[in-house]
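Input sequence (184 aa), recorded before submission:
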Amino acid sequence: MNKKSTIAIYNTKGGVGKTSLSYNISKDLGYQYITNDISASMLKMSKSRNIKTNIPLKENTLYDFGGFEDKEAFKIINEVDLVIVPTICDMNSLARTLSLLKKIKHENVIVVGTMIDKKKDFQDIKKVVNHHFPKIKVFQFRKTRLLRNAMEEGISAKQLFSKKKLYKEAFIEYNTILNQCLEA
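Predicted structure, token format:
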């Protein structure tokens, strides 16, 4: 990869898929993985670091920020090339997502509706986000084991898909998100 960029994945709500998304994107892009949280994904990443204070801004790095509000995370997310905010279709998650989006002072933000098992769930997420933030792109990522299985095997989603040809529809959605990272 020739382009040097930085990506942050953040939501102050836990359980929305930040870690598995972060792990796979960083693996597929060959990026360093930095988190401010204890994460099982670090056991599978050779280029990973856990940093809680004075987090450095580095090129070709993906930042996975834990499900809590952190002033260090806000310093980084306002400096990176792309901010990805994963969310699920539940009132608490959407409320926390909207609250976070109001605090982000960045032009290049996308929202990823994760763990989607009904088309209506994605439409609801998109409707709520676009009502408050009409310029933010919202992407779907269905409920699947693609990212988790790749992480458990210590490989990326692309590697898992090319190896086993499983999760075709989920891989197409993941690849769309990955392409947004490459365009950042």
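Checked by second reader. The domain at 6-183 is CATH 3.40.50.300 (Rossmann fold).
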